[in-house]
Task: structure prediction
Amino acid sequence: MKFRSRLVVNLNHLAYNYTQIKKMAPESSVLFMVKADGYGHGMIPIVRYAVTELGVKEFGCATISEALKLREELNDLEFDIYVFSDIQLELLENADIYLKRRIIPVISNVSELEYILHTDGFNYFPICLKFNTGMNRLGLDPSDAPLIVNMLKQHGRISVHHLIQHYANASYPMGSNERNISQRNRFIDIKKFFRDSGITLERTSQSNSGTIEQQIGFDDTHIRPGLMMYGPTSLLDDYKELGHFQGKVVSRLETYILRTFDVLAQTPIGYGSTPCPHDGVVAILAIGYGDGFSTRYGGAHLYHKGFEGVIIGRVNMDMIQVLFPVEARDHIKAHEIFTIWGEQEGDLLRFSMETKTIPYEVFCSLLPRIPRVYRLN
Ligand SMILES: Cc1ncc(COP(=O)(O)O)c(C=O)c1O
Result:
């Protein structure tokens, strides 16, 4: 056995998801969100594949260090990088990084814009502005649009490289949710105001996965898919029928069975001595919170060879205990590979719903102890 647990990433599925997105929005360019180590899938191999095999040219990170890692490790490839949240423009060394490594900070307040406009070296630097149209997180205040246009003009800037907004409720219907409608209309107004004021908008984008799934934002130059590139839908269960995307989950989380043993009802198991609710067979799996498998996953159901088991007792640092019914006894064996979630979207969604988490978090929680292994058919 060469591994304990591993995340098997199927790059063909990434290609499939990208193709589906391009079919939905053939005119839109994709700014692929690869925050948090490519949503847990390994940012470097994912971006290398996306650039070389899919022709994606723009990527979104959360932090300047993620962006720098991309530049340093993929310096043989041509692509643009945006830093969306943690831009730390006020630090001198970061300004140097943005300038020299061609990394674009997404500006979300007036003082950051002032900095860019007033600092030597940034004279021709692409300006990317993000407006707060109702998300109320980061973002420029729409009422500052006249001020911003004046600032740009005073510095001889007649174009904005990319104008952005982000939805707070993209998992809800775009056509009827009041907040979505309001955010959408605000963005229309902001774009119009800039254009009417003589500022060229080279790129605009508003849509992340839930929005793209509902085919909104395709009149902008760009879309910004994150989760859907990795397969799962980001629409809430009640609104799935509004989606036009059927992705393939790109990863499969595998572990293996360390040991199996029979138990009788009430046998205490593991830390805290949780009593088994019924007779059965316990499989000890080689995954725990030291791998990013949360203690909150206790009680979730897992499946092996058609049998349903339940994570019983506390999740340990390196192991979990799964109780299967007595009938599974002759089928579930030590050393077998055990799939926690497979490439069926249903597996991951069921697991995340049952554990009251979301696919984003399940993906991003996996720690480096889980090797990422890449497969191509
Ligand atoms: C500004 C912005 N755009 C796009 C995305 C991608 O979102 P999703 O993963 O829901 O597609 C994110 C996600 O963090 C984001 O912050």
About this structure: The first strand starts at residue 6 and ends at 10.
